[in-house]
Amino acid sequence: MAAQITQQLLNFVTLGAIYALIAVGFSLLFGVLNIIHFSHADVAMTAPFLALAIVPVLGGAFGGAPLPAGFALAALLAVLVTGALGGVLYATIIKRFRNAPAMMALVATVALGIVLRELIRHLFPNGSNPQAIPRLFSGSLTLFGTAVPVFNLVAIAVSVLCVGGLFLVLGRTRLGLHIRAVSQDRDAARLMAIAPERIFLITFFIASAIGALGGLFFAGYAGIVRFDFSVDLGLIGFSAAVAGGLGSMPGAIIGSLLIAGIDTLVQATLPNGASYRLVFVFLLVIAVLVFRPSGLLGRTVVEKV
């Protein structure tokens, strides 16, 4: 019994950490640009496919010799490329909707997500089929009499470090000060010699790179990756950000843990719970928004007319 509880707690924390990497990106982008980037998870889920494509390239570059950390290196490169992809998509497409009505930006990013998924499906070899993906770390440790996969521990640790590092950057560095200044008042930031466009590009790179880590860990947790995994992951990440308070990164973390808790509890207690987990997850989101429309840590904005 204790082993089962330990395993379910581990699943809960691992899923919460992975969801938080996606939800934090949603909140960061909304907080700085006031745009709901609905294709954020689609950008993030390009990372596993990029890693799979980079592995044979690295093998060829090293004369076909096996690389001990080949996939880990490919994953790191995929994170950087995905961050750059986020910046390119902002510069070429999303920036044109920055001052447009919210519905236009929403529809445009939903369409962009569909384009990304279809490009992966058609350009990646056998892209319509699930692709086996190796875990970044193998093996297990014994904890309280339970075998704990090293992958789960690494996923949790990396997520904590990344989110903690992001909070540190935003709260203690000059770049973080500029990001917060632009998010609060772009015109005032310009008067202080801060270039909003540069900050927007950097923000997209950071959010997309952190999301890429979430995509890699999500694929590694499942053991496979499909071109349409981003649909569920995007809905869960966005719902976590909304439930916690869109624009609030602590709220995004709390929302992620709530959703992961419901997800794990339903799968552990209900017969065939995996088929119904999203039903209970989104019922939770609806309940939160009914009683707290701005989210758990969100602030109600009052506009004077």
What can you see in these coordinates?
InterPro entries: ABC_transp_permease, BCAA_transport_permease. It is a multi-pass membrane protein. It is found in: Cell membrane. Its main location: membrane. Pfam families: BPD_transp_2 (PF02653). The chain has 305 residues and is mainly alpha-helical. The chain has a single domain (2-291), classed as ABC transporter involved in vitamin B12 uptake, BtuC (Orthogonal Bundle), CATH 1.10.3470. The protein contains twelve helices and four strands. The protein has helices at residues 2-33, 40-44, 46-61, 70-92, 102-123, 150-172, 174-184, 186-191, 196-222, 229-244, 249-269, 277-291, and strands spanning 131-132, 140-143, 146-149, 224-225. The strands form two sheets. Strands 1-4 form a two-stranded antiparallel ribbon. It has a two-stranded antiparallel ribbon with strand order 2-3. Strand 2 (140-143) and strand 3 (146-149) form a beta hairpin. Helix 1 (2-33) crosses helix 10, helix 6 runs antiparallel to helix 9 (196-222) and helix 11 (249-269) crosses helix 12 (277-291). The radius of gyration is 20 Å and the shape is globular. The model is unreliable at 301-305 (pLDDT under 50).
Portion of residues in beta strands equals under 5%
**Rg computed from alpha carbons, rounded to a whole number of angstroms:** 20 Å
Largest sheet: 2 strands, antiparallel
Tell me roughly what share of residues is in helical segments. Answer: over 70%
Care to count the β-strands? 4
Uncertain runs are: 301-305
**What's the number of domains?**
1
Could you say what the CATH topology is called? ABC transporter involved in vitamin B12 uptake, BtuC
**What is the correct CATH architecture?**
Orthogonal Bundle
Number of helices: 12
Family: Belongs to the binding-protein-dependent transport system permease family. LivHM subfamily.
Organism: Methylobacterium aerolatum
Subcellular location: Cell membrane
Main location: membrane
